Fold this sequence. Notes:
The complex is a heterodimer.
Chain A: E1 3-7, E2 11-12, E3 18-25, E4 34-41, E5 48-54, E6 59-61, E7 69-74, E8 79-84, E9 93-103, E10 106-112, E11 116-120
Parallel strand pairs in A: 2-11
Antiparallel strand pairs in A: 1-3, 3-8, 4-5, 4-9, 5-6, 7-8, 9-10, 9-11
Chain B: E1 9-12, E2 18-23, E3 36-40, E4 47-50, E5 64-69, E6 72-77, E7 86-94, E8 100-103, E9 107-111
Parallel strand pairs in B: 1-9
Antiparallel strand pairs in B: 2-6, 3-4, 3-7, 5-6, 7-8, 7-9
Amino acid sequence: QVHLQESGPGLVKPSQTLSLTCTVSNDSISSGGYYWSWIRQPAGKGLEWIGRIFTSGLTHYNPSLQSRVTISLDTSKNQFSLRLSSVSAADTAMYYCARDVLMGATDWFDPWGQGTLVTVST
Amino acid sequence: QSVLTQPPSVSGAPGQRVTISCTGSSSNIGTGYDVHWYQQVPGTAPKLLINGHNNRPSGVPDRFSASRSGTSASLIITGLQAEDEADYHCQSYDSGLGGCVVFGGGTKLTVL
Protein backbone atom coordinates (compact mmCIF):
# COMPACT_ATOMS: atom_id res chain seq x y z
CA GLN A 1 0.00 0.00 0.00
CA VAL A 2 1.14 3.50 -0.77
CA HIS A 3 3.43 5.16 1.75
CA LEU A 4 4.50 8.82 2.01
CA GLN A 5 7.49 10.18 3.93
CA GLU A 6 8.38 13.82 4.48
CA SER A 7 11.97 15.00 4.81
CA GLY A 8 13.78 18.30 5.20
CA PRO A 9 15.33 20.70 7.71
CA GLY A 10 13.58 20.96 11.05
CA LEU A 11 14.82 24.49 11.67
CA VAL A 12 14.58 27.45 9.31
CA LYS A 13 15.60 31.04 9.99
CA PRO A 14 13.08 33.88 9.60
CA SER A 15 12.89 35.37 6.10
CA GLN A 16 14.49 32.27 4.57
CA THR A 17 12.88 29.56 2.44
CA LEU A 18 11.43 26.36 3.85
CA SER A 19 12.05 23.33 1.63
CA LEU A 20 10.51 19.90 2.16
CA THR A 21 10.34 16.74 0.07
CA CYS A 22 7.78 13.95 0.12
CA THR A 23 8.93 10.54 -1.09
CA VAL A 24 6.18 8.23 -2.31
CA SER A 25 6.60 4.47 -2.29
CA ASN A 26 4.42 1.62 -3.59
CA ASP A 27 2.72 3.96 -6.06
CA SER A 28 3.94 6.04 -8.98
CA ILE A 29 3.18 9.75 -8.74
CA SER A 30 3.22 9.87 -12.53
CA SER A 31 0.63 7.14 -13.00
CA GLY A 32 -2.13 9.71 -13.00
CA GLY A 33 -5.47 9.94 -11.25
CA TYR A 34 -4.26 11.66 -8.11
CA TYR A 35 -3.14 15.02 -6.92
CA TRP A 36 -0.38 15.26 -4.30
CA SER A 37 -0.86 17.78 -1.50
CA TRP A 38 0.88 19.55 1.35
CA ILE A 39 -1.00 20.33 4.58
CA ARG A 40 0.26 21.88 7.79
CA GLN A 41 -0.81 22.03 11.43
CA PRO A 42 0.54 24.48 14.02
CA ALA A 43 0.83 22.96 17.47
CA GLY A 44 -2.57 22.70 19.14
CA LYS A 45 -4.39 24.09 16.12
CA GLY A 46 -6.35 22.91 13.11
CA LEU A 47 -5.21 21.77 9.70
CA GLU A 48 -4.40 24.18 6.85
CA TRP A 49 -4.19 23.06 3.20
CA ILE A 50 -1.14 24.57 1.49
CA GLY A 51 -1.50 23.36 -2.09
CA ARG A 52 -1.39 20.44 -4.52
CA ILE A 53 0.15 19.27 -7.75
CA PHE A 54 -1.16 16.95 -10.45
CA THR A 55 0.97 14.56 -12.46
CA SER A 56 0.84 17.01 -15.37
CA GLY A 57 2.50 19.64 -13.19
CA LEU A 58 -0.72 21.62 -12.75
CA THR A 59 -0.78 23.27 -9.34
CA HIS A 60 -3.40 24.81 -7.06
CA TYR A 61 -2.43 26.84 -4.01
CA ASN A 62 -4.19 28.19 -0.94
CA PRO A 63 -4.87 31.84 -1.85
CA SER A 64 -3.58 32.95 1.56
CA LEU A 65 -0.17 31.42 0.82
CA GLN A 66 -0.05 31.61 -2.97
CA SER A 67 2.51 34.39 -3.20
CA ARG A 68 5.05 32.38 -1.19
CA VAL A 69 4.42 28.76 -2.21
CA THR A 70 5.85 26.55 -4.94
CA ILE A 71 5.07 22.83 -5.26
CA SER A 72 6.97 20.75 -7.77
CA LEU A 73 7.33 17.14 -8.96
CA ASP A 74 10.36 14.95 -9.54
CA THR A 75 8.95 11.89 -11.26
CA SER A 76 12.37 10.29 -11.64
CA LYS A 77 12.65 10.09 -7.85
CA ASN A 78 8.91 9.61 -7.24
CA GLN A 79 8.93 12.73 -5.08
CA PHE A 80 7.14 16.02 -4.80
CA SER A 81 8.41 19.08 -2.99
CA LEU A 82 7.30 22.21 -1.15
CA ARG A 83 9.04 25.55 -1.05
CA LEU A 84 7.68 28.32 1.17
CA SER A 85 9.55 31.60 1.00
CA SER A 86 9.93 34.50 3.44
CA VAL A 87 9.00 32.39 6.45
CA SER A 88 8.15 33.79 9.86
CA ALA A 89 7.30 32.28 13.25
CA ALA A 90 3.72 31.91 12.01
CA ASP A 91 4.94 29.20 9.63
CA THR A 92 6.12 26.98 12.49
CA ALA A 93 4.05 23.81 12.19
CA MET A 94 3.92 20.10 11.52
CA TYR A 95 3.99 19.68 7.76
CA TYR A 96 2.26 16.69 6.16
CA CYS A 97 2.23 15.42 2.61
CA ALA A 98 -0.75 13.41 1.42
CA ARG A 99 -2.22 11.73 -1.62
CA ASP A 100 -5.12 13.82 -2.84
CA VAL A 101 -8.02 11.76 -4.21
CA LEU A 102 -10.14 13.85 -6.56
CA MET A 103 -13.63 12.57 -7.27
CA GLY A 104 -16.30 14.78 -8.71
CA ALA A 105 -16.19 18.28 -7.35
CA THR A 106 -14.17 17.64 -4.20
CA ASP A 107 -11.16 15.74 -2.98
CA TRP A 108 -9.97 14.01 0.15
CA PHE A 109 -6.60 13.03 1.53
CA ASP A 110 -5.57 9.41 1.91
CA PRO A 111 -3.03 8.37 3.00
CA TRP A 112 -0.91 10.93 4.86
CA GLY A 113 2.77 10.96 5.67
CA GLN A 114 3.81 10.87 9.31
CA GLY A 115 4.62 14.57 9.24
CA THR A 116 7.74 16.60 9.87
CA LEU A 117 8.04 19.44 12.37
CA VAL A 118 9.45 22.70 11.03
CA THR A 119 10.38 25.46 13.45
CA VAL A 120 11.10 28.99 12.26
CA SER A 121 13.55 30.60 14.65
CA THR A 122 16.93 32.29 14.82
CA GLN B 1 -10.08 31.12 12.46
CA SER B 2 -11.20 28.11 10.42
CA VAL B 3 -13.70 28.39 7.57
CA LEU B 4 -15.56 25.36 8.93
CA THR B 5 -16.64 25.55 12.59
CA GLN B 6 -16.40 22.58 14.93
CA PRO B 7 -16.93 22.45 18.70
CA PRO B 8 -13.54 22.38 20.46
CA SER B 9 -14.50 19.35 22.51
CA VAL B 10 -17.16 16.70 23.04
CA SER B 11 -17.33 13.80 25.45
CA GLY B 12 -19.27 10.63 26.08
CA ALA B 13 -19.27 7.47 28.12
CA PRO B 14 -18.42 4.09 26.65
CA GLY B 15 -21.32 2.69 24.68
CA GLN B 16 -22.94 6.08 24.13
CA ARG B 17 -23.60 7.92 20.88
CA VAL B 18 -21.85 11.20 20.18
CA THR B 19 -22.19 13.69 17.35
CA ILE B 20 -19.58 16.14 16.14
CA SER B 21 -20.87 19.06 14.09
CA CYS B 22 -19.17 20.91 11.26
CA THR B 23 -20.80 24.20 10.29
CA GLY B 24 -19.99 25.93 7.04
CA SER B 25 -21.66 28.43 4.74
CA SER B 26 -23.19 28.93 1.32
CA SER B 27 -19.76 28.94 -0.33
CA ASN B 28 -18.74 25.48 0.88
CA ILE B 29 -21.04 22.86 2.45
CA GLY B 30 -24.13 24.84 1.43
CA THR B 31 -23.08 24.70 -2.21
CA GLY B 32 -23.09 20.93 -2.07
CA TYR B 33 -19.39 20.23 -1.79
CA ASP B 34 -18.69 16.93 -0.06
CA VAL B 35 -17.53 16.81 3.56
CA HIS B 36 -14.83 14.38 4.60
CA TRP B 37 -13.82 13.37 8.13
CA TYR B 38 -10.43 12.50 9.61
CA GLN B 39 -9.36 10.98 12.92
CA GLN B 40 -6.11 12.09 14.53
CA VAL B 41 -4.76 10.26 17.55
CA PRO B 42 -2.46 12.66 19.48
CA GLY B 43 1.09 12.56 18.19
CA THR B 44 0.16 10.93 14.90
CA ALA B 45 -0.94 12.05 11.43
CA PRO B 46 -4.61 12.42 10.53
CA LYS B 47 -6.25 9.38 8.99
CA LEU B 48 -9.25 9.36 6.64
CA LEU B 49 -12.32 8.17 8.52
CA ILE B 50 -15.18 8.73 6.07
CA ASN B 51 -15.16 10.38 2.67
CA GLY B 52 -17.97 12.52 1.29
CA HIS B 53 -19.49 9.54 -0.44
CA ASN B 54 -20.01 7.97 3.02
CA ASN B 55 -17.36 5.37 2.32
CA ARG B 56 -15.11 4.17 5.11
CA PRO B 57 -11.59 2.91 4.37
CA SER B 58 -10.90 -0.70 5.19
CA GLY B 59 -10.58 -1.16 8.94
CA VAL B 60 -12.84 1.71 9.98
CA PRO B 61 -15.79 0.25 11.92
CA ASP B 62 -19.35 0.97 10.87
CA ARG B 63 -19.91 2.67 14.24
CA PHE B 64 -18.72 5.76 12.39
CA SER B 65 -21.16 7.45 10.00
CA ALA B 66 -21.74 10.90 8.56
CA SER B 67 -24.62 13.10 7.55
CA ARG B 68 -25.18 16.57 6.16
CA SER B 69 -27.99 19.11 5.94
CA GLY B 70 -27.92 22.59 4.49
CA THR B 71 -24.69 24.30 5.48
CA SER B 72 -23.73 21.75 8.14
CA ALA B 73 -22.44 18.21 8.42
CA SER B 74 -22.09 15.78 11.29
CA LEU B 75 -19.95 12.83 12.29
CA ILE B 76 -21.88 10.27 14.33
CA ILE B 77 -20.15 7.72 16.52
CA THR B 78 -22.25 4.99 18.09
CA GLY B 79 -21.20 2.45 20.70
CA LEU B 80 -18.38 4.73 21.86
CA GLN B 81 -15.14 2.95 22.77
CA ALA B 82 -12.06 4.09 24.63
CA GLU B 83 -10.00 3.78 21.45
CA ASP B 84 -12.16 6.45 19.81
CA GLU B 85 -10.56 9.13 21.97
CA ALA B 86 -8.88 11.39 19.43
CA ASP B 87 -9.20 14.65 17.51
CA TYR B 88 -11.66 14.73 14.61
CA HIS B 89 -11.42 17.11 11.64
CA CYS B 90 -13.93 17.90 8.91
CA GLN B 91 -12.82 19.00 5.44
CA SER B 92 -14.57 20.39 2.38
CA TYR B 93 -14.01 22.84 -0.46
CA ASP B 94 -14.78 26.55 -0.54
CA SER B 95 -15.53 28.29 -3.81
CA GLY B 96 -14.86 31.76 -2.47
CA LEU B 97 -11.54 33.61 -2.60
CA GLY B 98 -10.39 31.71 -5.66
CA GLY B 99 -11.31 28.27 -4.40
CA CYS B 100 -9.60 26.38 -1.63
CA VAL B 101 -9.66 23.16 0.37
CA VAL B 102 -10.83 24.06 3.87
CA PHE B 103 -10.76 22.31 7.24
CA GLY B 104 -12.58 22.71 10.52
CA GLY B 105 -10.63 23.60 13.63
CA GLY B 106 -10.86 20.07 14.98
CA THR B 107 -12.82 18.54 17.88
CA LYS B 108 -11.26 16.69 20.80
CA LEU B 109 -13.34 13.64 21.74
CA THR B 110 -12.93 12.46 25.31
CA VAL B 111 -14.25 9.06 26.33
CA LEU B 112 -15.23 9.34 29.99
